[in-house]
């Protein structure tokens, strides 16, 4: 099974990490994988384009099926390997509805992170506008407040006590925030969630290699 899968990925990329966590959760170790460098523009290589014509990572092939969108890959793997590894879609309608709702809200959450990171790292300093910086910060601050409220009402995971697909897609974005200097004191519920899951086997096994080094970034420290 796993030997028929190929994943081209980048270290620290939340969409790539989601698929890696998913493969661990479904006990699909032993798949073919290759770590590529964003800095060297390896995600634009022909090798990637052959699987993902958008020239983006992840590029994931499962047998004859191509699933480059992390959500698509997560759903596919859960449905194809229902009886293997951990069950990640709950049976209870209440938990299932909450899981789907939170899972798709992560798209907005992650986009607000990306907007700040992109503006900070891709727009030259002399071209940045204070109003845009402020607008992005306020949008993320409001979003974080929303998730603090959500997490204050749950046991440990997003949809209750059990780890689900919602956590597979959410955790990498949360970890990315703390990597960028998010304050645990200012965001205690997010910090508690992060600390409660960072040693989970699937997460530990797939921890981004370059994150073994201490972070030098403080993009999120004042948010």
Automatic annotation (TrEMBL):
Domain GST N-terminal stretches: 3-85
Top-level taxon: Eukaryota
Gene3D superfamilies named in the record: 1.20.1050.10, Glutaredoxin (3.40.30.10)
InterPro entries membership: Glutathione-S-Trfase_C-like, Glutathione-S-Trfase_C_sf, Glutathione_S-Trfase, Glutathione_S-Trfase_N, GST_C, Thioredoxin-like_sf
Domain GST C-terminal span(s) in chain numbering: 92-217
Family in the record: Belongs to the GST superfamily.
Protein name: Glutathione S-transferase rho
Native source organism of the sequence: Amphiprion percula
Lineage: Eukaryota, Metazoa, Chordata, Craniata, Vertebrata
């Amino acid at each position: 099974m796993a030997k028929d899968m190929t994943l081209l990925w980048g270290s620290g990329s939340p969409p790539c990490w989601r698929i890696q966590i998913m493969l661990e959760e479904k006990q699909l170790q032993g798949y073919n994988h290759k770590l590529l460098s964003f800095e060297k523009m390896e995600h634009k290589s022909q090798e990637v384009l052959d699987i993902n014509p958008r020239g983006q990572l992840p590029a994931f092939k499962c047998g004859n099926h191509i699933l480059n969108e992390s959500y698509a890959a997560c759903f596919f793997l859960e449905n194809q390997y229902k009886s293997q590894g951990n069950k990640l879609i709950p049976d209870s309608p209440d938990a299932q509805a909450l899981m789907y709702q939170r899972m798709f809200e992560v798209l907005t959450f992650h986009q607000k992170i990306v907007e700040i990171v992109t503006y900070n790292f891709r727009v030259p300093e002399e071209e940045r506008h204070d109003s845009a910086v402020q607008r992005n910060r306020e949008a993320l601050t409001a979003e974080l407040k929303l998730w603090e409220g959500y997490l204050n009402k749950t046991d440990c995971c997003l949809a209750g006590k059990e780890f689900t697909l919602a956590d597979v897609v959410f955790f990498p974005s949360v970890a990315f925030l703390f990597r960028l200097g998010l304050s645990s004191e200012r965001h205690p519920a997010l910090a508690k969630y992060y600390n409660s899951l960072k040693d989970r086997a699937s997460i530990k096994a797939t921890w981004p290699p370059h994150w073994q080094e201490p972070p030098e970034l403080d993009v999120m420290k004042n948010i």
